[in-house]
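Any chance you could type out some protein's one-letter sequence along with its C-alpha cells so I can compare the two?
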Amino acid sequence: MDGNTMTMSDIRQSFRTPLRILLPKLLKSRDAWKAKSDRRKADLKAARIKIRDCSASRHMWRERAERFGEENRQLREQLELAQRERTQMQAQLAEHDKKK
C-alpha cells in the first residue's frame, strides 16, 4: 500500500467491503473523475478559442480605429489648408475688387 501494485490478497485483507461491492463503486468513481476531467478539458479548449478569437477581433478593431484616426487627422489637415487657401483667395479677390 506504499504506491506499489497491490495483489488481490492484499486488497481482500485491507478492505472489509466485498470486492463485488467495492469494484463497481471504484469504477463509477473513476468514470466520474474522467468525465469531469473531459468536461474541464473541453471548457478550457473552448475558453482558449474564445480568447484567441476575441484577441484577434480586438487587434483588428484597434488597427481599424488607428487607421480611421489617421485618416481623420489627414482630412482635418486638408480642411485647414483648404480654409486657409479660401481665406487667401477671398483676400486677393477683395484687393482685386478694390483696385477696379
In short: The mean pLDDT is 90. The CA atoms of residues 9 and 43 lie 41 Å apart.
